[in-house]
Amino acid sequence: MGVGGASGATEQVAEILDKFPGGIRLVDSIEYLVAWARANSLWPLVYGTACCAMEMMSAGSSRHDWARFGVEVARATPRQADLIVLAGTIVEKMGTNLVTLYEQMPAPKYVIAMGSCAISGGPFYYDTYSVIKGGDRLIPVDVYVPGCPPRPEALLYGIMELQEKIRKEGRRNPWKVGKVLETPFVDTHSLAKQEWLTQEEKKEDEQRLARARFKAENPDYKPAKPQRLAKEKFAAMPRIPPRKSGFTNPSLLAAVQRAFPEVALFRQPEITPATVADLGPEYILDLEIGPEQYPDLVRFLKEDQELGIDLLLQVTAVDWQDHFDVLVQLLSTRLGHKVFLRCPVSKEQPEINTISDIFRGAEWHEREVFDLFGIRFSGHPDMRRIFLLDDFPGYPLRKDFADPERVVKRPY
Amino acid sequence: MELQPVDNLPEGFTRGLNSDETSEEYFLNMGPQHPSTHGVLRLVLKLDGENVLEVVPHLGYVHRGIEKLAESQTYLQNIHLTDRLDYLSSHFNNLGYCLAMEQALDIGVPERGEYIRVMVCELQRIQSHLLWWGVTGMDLGAISTFLYGFKEREMITDIFEEICGARLTMNFFRPGGSFADVPDTFIPRVKKVIERMHVALDEYNTLLTDNIIFRERTRAIGILSREKALSYGCSGGVLRASGVSYDVRRNDPYSIYDRFDFGIPVGSVGGCFDRYRMKMEEMPQSLRILEQAVKDFPEGPYRSKEQSAYRLPQGSYYSQVETARGLLGTYIVAEGGAKPYRVKFRSPSFSNLSTLCEMAVGHKIADLVTILATLDFVVPDIDR
Amino acid sequence: MNQLPTEKIFPVHNSIGDLVRHLLPGSAEYVNGFLTIASLLLVVALLPVFLIWLERKVAAHFQARLGPMRVGYHGLLQSTADGLKLIFKEVLVPEGADRFVFFLAPILPASATFLVMTILPFDHHLQVADPAGGVLFALGISGLSILGILLAGWSSNNKYSLLGAMRSGAQMVSFEISLALIMLLIVMVTGTASLREIVLSQQGTILDWWIFKLPFLGFIAFMMYMISSTAELNRAPFDISEAESELTGGFATEYSGISFAMFFFAEFVNMFVSAGLAATFFLGGFLAPQFGIGPIDAAFDFIPGFVWFFCKTFLVIFLYMWFRWTFPRLRIDQLMYLEWKMLLPANLVLLMGAGFFLAMGWTL
Predict the structure, then answer these.
(1) What are the pLDDT digits (tens) for A47-72?
(2) How does pLDDT run across C135-154, given as a tens digit for each residue?
């Protein structure tokens, strides 16, 4: 049950009124009226975290129009909202905020869990370290709308189910039976199941008779074997490499090695500018460099007018079990070629110089690497975790990361 | 000038409030639940009255660990994860991932498959821009634009639903093409969309672009210089608005984009209106591509040979596509085996949003909302 | 030009007045007053319910939707349900809020709008009071609602509320000036500040309405009234004090349940009052439109005056709604620029122009 229903004082008033003739009827009709008003005036909170929020917006669009149910008064402040639609994944960092939002809403308040993420974590149930496996672990949920994401129609149906639920609130609802109205509890589910079973039996009997009759009339009838549709076959075909522009690998490698002779290709140190063309036109130079010269090389690549490299694609890292590689990927918007470079970082002392003074955009990328790999960037202006909470134990993208409290291992 | 003690400050701030008698400085928390942060971005602002002095964005309110999850799923299973990154560009994300796999395994795509890819992607670009247009209008207070944008968007969503059964998370492309052929109704429906969009774009321009209030609200707001845009690694409309003519479709063509004739709008000032204009002018260009593709849409197989399991040889593979928001890079490190060793998505929204602090300072709160709207980011794409 | 009886009349229609006067001699005025106030209260209670429904339906049809459909005929009972729900909802007071002021704040705008309703001339004989300085009364009382909003923002102990209230205060104080100047223009051309007399000064054909009577100037004045009253009402495109995409809920961020309902309802009654004043000043109030064509004029004249008053008022209300669902919002500095550097000088020029027109006798 949600947090609907009467509060202490109103319940007392109802109890006093019950003693008067016609009092029960009066209280009942007031309750009916209030439940009607509540069911038909569900103002949702503007809250959406991920994909489902788009389908929630679609539910408000002209085609689906949840205004028909009086739901279009979306409030941005929880104080005026009655309904919170959990649209999207709820992660640990958002969890506390969600509970606060729920607590800020005045009673009676209702919750719809929209989509598999809000129901159970959905596609992010296994092997993730941050997703909360279902909104009902935080706040009580009234209606679950399955789907990934559910269609807008499904959300509308969920709203209608919620309205149905609210209409039954008050003293007539089955949870409160026995207090005032001596309505016996009816297990509608079992009744329906029984009815279904008897009907099925009846159908089965009819069919058995019909089958026996048919067999007697056509003694040599043989049912046709079901045929499978032929699976479409497709021919394998080679790939046509796209046209590449900008510097070719030999000239690029030659230019870099002229300034930094010790730079070598990752896993292929024997390759020289003369032989790099053998790796194919699509190969992107993957240069390996020591930590001392790493910022210098980045600076060189950026400042060399001829190479024309001006855009930082990303800074990231790879965990090779025994050491990390910090990867920097650069692009020339003018000419179109790309250069990747990597710098090994030891596991014992994961620290490397920052390049955020060269490319401003590296600031956030480096924070991300610090957050997920635990590699510190010395000289970085603002070395904080970017995605996870400050007290998150460990660095999740490391290969040896294990957190049995958070991560549910995939059983298959 | 006295400053507040440093240990009392909100996270990410280094300087406290000016506690002069006349000072009107204060901190304001915006989000993670706030209508104009488009999801769950949280901003902490230092304000002087209405003027923004400092912005500190806080990310991670929907960080789901997709990159870690990708390491424990097979290559084919991971395609569905890419849907949920930037859910408004799920076709692009699928495509980027498939391109990297195709590069690793030398898988070609038949002619019809390539056409399907281009057409579906351009439809998705229009669809995404339509939603962005509506939300931008709503952020600026014109609520009706939101519903108008959705009206045409539903037409495109219908096409997607028909070709792959999903409205949002498509999971449509596979290495070598797509998992299914397009139905016969595809081309007529696309023609209808093209026809309607030409009319609709005119309406949109009359309603919002040419509105004097809108013009005044976006004029000279959130200027991002060319150098800064490059330094922050911006891409897509944000980069082009600042005067850098870079579009992956033209400068580093993938699929069959080099066969089509289309223009790349480039801005001059790099302000909010330029960023707005970029997107509005991209839509007619997408329609141009669609018109050409409809004309030469070929018959034949829609995909090449299917494999039951994909195992990428050792090495690292990188592909990039131009999504509705900018440059999406997919970087796969493979060590043999059925699962990737590391997957990294270079999301355009992440870099684009990092410019916010540069742009918002000195403007008013209302302008901050305008800047956020024209940056056009998707928070789950930033957080991944 | 005044052909109708202008002697002091009882607010409620004379037949009721006569009856009461006959049955209870001496107490007629009190009973009359009581009946008037009761009926006015009923109108005040029902108006916002209807207006909110109308706003939602108009918005829906502007946006190619249907709007509320499920409760009552075409959702007619939708805002009744909303109101009932709000009444039975928990009222939260934020920590650190000034409780007394917090609860006082929503009462002020609600009572202010109710007070202004008392001087609106609904019909020849349907007006609670007709003070000689009716225009001044309307101006003065409507200032109370600013006070309510300011108090709400201050007492909520929330930065968003305070920001919203400050914006609202700045905006309303400035636009009050242009509103007052336009009213001054009307007072100048009519020579009276009583709302009833202003209506009566527009007798004749529709060309005698002030929107047409002063060539061009009347129409410009009407437009300016629309702009400044939209700002005064805190409605889009001037809704910066609520600015949902910026300040979540503006000054009402912390209000829930019935206190929020009072703000919400006051907003809509306010809109009605403002539109009613526009109809009174420019569109001939309760007077039936006359075209100088005998049968049509007679037919229109047959329709009671309050019907015409409501028709004209709802026409203006529709304009307000049209604005709201079309335009983007202005920024606070642009709003101030609009008032102080554009509207105010234009107002002064208009005032001089109208005086000149009157002096030269250039009226229709």
Answers:
(1) 888 888 889 989 988 889 888 888 88
(2) 888 888 887 888 888 888 88
Rounded to 10°, the helix C78-87/C28-62 angle is 110
As a whole number, the mean pLDDT across chain C is 82
Report CB contact under 8 Å: A76, C248.
Answer: yes
Which of C61, C74, C85, C267 is most worth mutating to test chain A (most A CB atoms within 10 A of its CB)?
C85
Residues 103-132 of A with CB under 8 A from B: 123-124, 126-131
B232, B330 in Cβ contact below 8 A? no
Q: Each residue of B322-341: pLDDT tens digit?
A: 998 889 999 999 988 888 99
Quick one: closest CA in C to A46, which residue? Answer: C248
User: Looking at CA atoms only, how far is residue B234 from chain A in angstroms?
Assistant: 8
CATH superfamily of domain region B66-372: Cytochrome-c3 Hydrogenase, chain B (1.10.645.10)
Looking at every residue in chain B, the average pLDDT score rounds to 87
pTM (predicted TM-score): 0.86
Residues of chain B with CATH 1.10.645.10: 66-372
Amino acid identity of A89? T
Cα–Cα distance, B212 to B186 (Å, whole number): 39
Q: Give how far Cα C286 sits from Cα of A256, B1, C186, C295, Å.
A: 87, 63, 17, 19
pLDDT digits (tens, 9 = 90+) for A358-400: 888 888 999 999 989 989 888 888 888 888 888 888 898 888 8
Chain C residues bordering chain B (beta-carbon distance below 8 Å): 59, 62-65, 159-160, 163, 167, 236-237, 239-240, 243-248, 325-334
Nearest CA in chain C to B34: C248
Quickly list DSSP for B251-304: HS--TTGGGS-------SS-SHHHHHHHHHHHHHHHHHHHHHHHHT---S-SS-
Judge: B67–A319 Cβ closer than 8 Å, yes or no.
no
- Phi, psi dihedrals of residue A110, rounded to the nearest 5°: -130, 155
CB spacing of C245 vs B141 below 8 angstroms: yes
